[in-house]
Amino acid sequence: MKIREAIKGVRPYQAGKPISEVKRQLGLDDIIKLASNENPYGCSEKVRQAMISAVDSINLYPDASNYELKKALADYLGVKTSMIFCGTGSDLLIRVLCSIFIDKDDEIIMGDISFQRYEDSAKIMGGKVVKIKMKNHRLDVEGMVNAVNDRTKIVWFATPNNPTGTIVKKDELLWALDNIPKDVLVVIDEAYKEYVTDEDYPDTIPLLNKYNNIVILRTFSKAYGLAGLRLGYGIANEEITQYMNSVIGPFDTNLIAQEAGIAALKDEEFLKFIVEKNDEGRKYYYKEFDRLGLNYIESQANFVMVDTGKDDMDVFNKLLRKGVIVRPGSLFDMPGWLRVTVGTMEQCQRFVKSLEEILRGE
Ligand SMILES: Cc1ncc(COP(=O)(O)O)c(C=O)c1O
Fold first, then answer.
1. Where does the record place the Aminotransferase class I/classII large domain (predicted)?
2. Per-residue model confidence as pLDDT tens digits over 272-315
3. Structural fold of domain 45-266
4. 91 CB under 6 A from ligand 1?
5. CA-based nearest residue to 130, from 114, 251, 242
């Protein structure tokens, strides 16, 4: 088969284990999944109702222009509709960005412990991935900017970063934007933005007025609790948005997702509740990890990295047998660590109790 050479080096993404798989493999019934940074509270009731109503029109194709959804997003964000593009999760948008910007041997720059899909998507296009070592578990913004050269097409800032949960601070981002050449794209991936409580977190929308080379990516998968629906969006200048809209397929958002997105933006109370609960959960983890003497990374997202000081694959497998699914750090080149999602308080407690038992050898 005449498979493109570039594709041969691309490996399938290893997603968090689904509950159904663990049930099947281990014969367990009572399982909690804290592996994929999903919202443990589900979605807003108002969104659920909007989705149920939308089912009545499911025989129709969705509006290929996403008119109502873009209008709702534009009002919400205070930007023009012509600056918004939508897709089946920000994952699709990452791939589309790479298909627009990356030719063979072009380079992207990312943190060495950051979201793997930037790497995969660049490789699919035959691009080269330049990974800059993290500094104290944070993206080394200066190092990333210094690595820019003539072949660089995209610099990826995941903020909060997955899996470390750390942010790029306002002064760092502004410095980066002032020092990255104007023809290099800077993608600011804000998948976990809603969870941030740090006051140094930049409001990036106004930056679109000053910098022409930025794309902001956001998603309904995390705080809005709609991961299974697949809806993400991006904001950029009109030229980039036009190219995005030319490459994104006409039906790369679905009819139910369009209605859900509109309803989700209106339910501010739900979002507030989720953000408060998440903050409580993060603090609970910190307190318990301190008690257990475990090192962890303070997170601005809905997950925390914790250093078990043991073989993470072993701890991961023992947790699975106790019905708790997390993500082993080895997957992210952080052996010994686990990435655990902030669940409901009951789920967080169950994780801590199970981890404590395993560390005691039980
Ligand atoms: C940093 C980051 N960006 C993007 C995504 C993709 O999210 P989705 O495709 O569900 O919008 C994720 C998912 O985990 C993520 O962690």
1. 30-355
2. 999 999 999 999 999 999 999 999 999 999 999 999 999 999 99
3. Aspartate Aminotransferase; domain 2 (3.40.640)
4. yes
5. 114
